[in-house]
What does this fold into?
Amino acid sequence: MISLDTNIIVRFVTGDDPVQARRARGLIETNEVFVTATVLLETECVLRAAYGFSAPRILGALRGLLGLPNLHADALDRLDRALKWYQDGMDFADAMHLAFSEEAESFATFDEKLVRRARQIEAISVRVP
It folds into this structure.
């Protein structure tokens, strides 16, 4: 199994460098590949900030990637929850933070918007210290 870096996924999704995109596609389509949650977090940031992708376009790309039969991922159940929350309007990083904090009894933040948003979903308790 081969673990993928963000730049491989970005080339696969955007095709912005034809040579690297072809190599990324070949790698992903012909091997068992693994993607970590941290790589997905960085991928969303790059697609949004550097490429100007909208949330629905990013969501489609990430869901498509995670749906590949030969792709394996960190804690897929948590990723699915984070993607659902992202689809529902939560910031992707915040959704990932909450989904990957489920062993904790609560999540502390100074972000009042996150506190309000977390109350609307089935997530761990989010509070301001």
Notes: Residues 18-30 form the longest helix (13 residues). The helical segments are 6-14, 18-30, 37-49, 55-66, 76-87, 92-99, 112-119. The chain has two domains: 1-74, 76-129.
